[in-house]
Amino acid sequence: MNQSSWWHGGSLYHAYVRSFQDSDGDGHGDIQGLTDRLDHLQWLGIDGLWLSPTMPSPNHDWGYDVSDYRDVHSDLGTLDAMDRLIARAKERGIRVMLDLVANHTSSEHPWFVEARSSAASPYRDYYVWAPAKADGSLPNNWVDDTGDPAWTWDEKAGTYFFHNFLPEQPDLNWWNPAVHQEFDAIMDFWFDRGISGFRIDVANGLYKDAQLRDNPRHEGAYIYGTEVQGRYGLQHVHNFNQPEVHDVYRDWRRRAEERPEPPLLLGETWVARVDELAPYYGDNDQLQLGFNFPFIFAPFEAPALARVVADSLASFPAGSCPVWAGSNHDLPRLATRWAGGDSRKTRLAQTILATLPGTFVLYYGDELGMTDSDIPPHQQRDPLTAGGKNGQWPRDNARAPMRWDRTANGGFSSGTPWLPLPADEGLNVADQREDPLSTLTLVRSLIELRTEAFAGAVADYREIEVSDTRWSFASGPLTVVANFSDEPQPLSIAGDPVVLSSRTIRDLADSDGGNKIGPWEAVVLYSGRPLAAPVPAVECQP
Fold it and tell me: Is residue 193's pLDDT more than 80?
């Protein structure tokens, strides 16, 4: 094992703040609500808490359009509330991370307001501007995240500005050194307040091709949630993944390492292939963690998942740490996307994610087995995807409020929740916490197991067997055998005790003679650990 930082072998919890816990009855989750629920995260065994955007914003993209980088959105609380959260979390051994939106600002940010006021404004070059072509057409063929042209004419400025997302989210110009200086100061502001790191939004964005060249066409179909390139018929090669972005992360990493406890830089590295992800780790001198979207987008099949893991660990620099997640606020939840609502597959997926070496990221509600909601179009709130614009999947379906119990509004709010709660009342914390066979109990046991087995280090990984129906691997002292089929299979590994199964937390010695694993089941063996007391088996319904 490789000994290093607190996130090595650790577990991060991704809280979508507006949907986690409302403390004041306005229907929106908030920072005080998070503070009130810290005991849940401590009970789970979480090491770090990553918050969705908390900074002031007009909410055209629910906080991913920042209008002030040094404050807290009034819907969510205050700086004092944030300070209390950081302090209370620290008392429980939990570090707090914020979302940092460095690719773009809100169009209401003072920088942009000033930038568009005059060509002579000192903030003009903070953003990406371009004139029309000689024939009056747009500067190039780039499209934004909705599929519309990524260039918007600004009458006041008399030119076009670029936005990878909504027109209300103008992209910053990272070719300008002043932008670097601004973000150095912003990061220091939050680090000095006790923040332990940032999840960097659109980490593969920042720089755009200096010549603003057209993106090449993409041939073939595109299926949302299964791949990165090809949306809207284009390969997005000139407005993302420019080589200069790596200098930013080398500088941020250097500055982070100068602090007594180096903060974590976790990148939303939205790339299609492992060979595009590895450069964001550099020579272990850039991001400490980069989200593995090739893994997230892989089909839920043993060969596909195993290949991404093997390729990733072979490609990343020595001493680095991989990170594994199955859900986030932009994509269908793993219980729907991978498992199709089959609880056996959901529990299998969580078992694999939690036993791979590196860092495990758990999206709020996934500990309960939450599936996507089916929120009617008239109740959708996400401006970017509401109504399925240009065929987009509505992200609100993965952002429904957390159910804490069976009371009115699931214990989430005393008011009217900002989004409808999930339909299944049984997917709540109180009921599952009392059930030793629940998904919540399984996830807690997985986190407890990885904490013990990995001991704050990145475990060594060894692939044992991969077939169309089976994936077996060793991760430090753990051996995992996963059955990706509808038929029982022989366990085929003997010697070490089975300490956990995705079907239940139990010893398999009293089931099938201890030599079989059931359909869509994963078992975990632990070298050198005493056998735990068995618990009765549970049959998970598809």
Answer: yes
